[in-house]
Amino acid sequence: MPAEEEAAAPFPAPFDAAGCLSLPAWERQLGDWLLSLSSTCGVERPKEKNAMREIAKYIESNYNRELTLQEIAGHFYLSREYISRKFKQEFGENLSDFLGRVRIGKAKRLLLNPRLRIAEVANMVGYADEKYSSKVFKKLEGISPGQYRKG
User: Where are the alpha helices (DSSP H) in 1-151?
Assistant: First the structure.
């Protein structure tokens, strides 16, 4: 094979000193090429942990609207089951608890403004139902939003 053709081949066949095809050398060469290819493909796809961190950032940016696991799964092209399992492994809590914690954290800051009604705060952080919002708030903080505001 001329030198120009050998250089153009994606993985030219290696020959031993006798000019015979060396299968062990070719196997190593092909394995190295496949390993290189797989790492190149891996760079373009987010790693598991990065995907879960991106989902967490997405939740933190969109906490104030209705978020469903189905919508998040569609946005990230991942299955709901996969997200649920990996998110819990990464953060130690399920996705809905994480969302609730983010929302209540934002609500606590908004409750410092006495001009905002508690129902408005609940709506601003993504809860359509003020009673449910208060229930989640009390579960996480141990006191109601009204008590939090007074304290």
Answer: 3-8, 23-44, 48-62, 69-76, 80-91, 95-110, 118-124, 130-141, 145-150
Does the CA dihedral 55-56-57-58 come out positive or negative? Answer: positive
**Contact, 130 vs 122, CB < 8 A?**
yes
Task: Give a yes or no: residue 88 inside a domain.
Answer: yes
The residues, ordered by sequence, that sit 6+ positions from 15 with a Cβ below 8 Å of its Cβ are: 21, 22
Instruction: Render each residue's pLDDT in the chain as its tens digit; 151 residues.
Output: 555 555 555 557 777 778 787 777 777 777 777 766 665 665 444 455 699 999 999 999 999 999 999 999 999 999 999 999 999 999 999 999 999 999 999 999 999 999 999 999 999 999 999 999 999 999 999 999 999 999 8
Per DSSP, the three-state class of 10 is: coil
Could you tell me the CATH number of the domain that includes residue 75?
1.10.10.60
pTM here? 0.66
Structural domain span for residue 63 = 48-151
Q: How many domains does the chain have?
A: 1
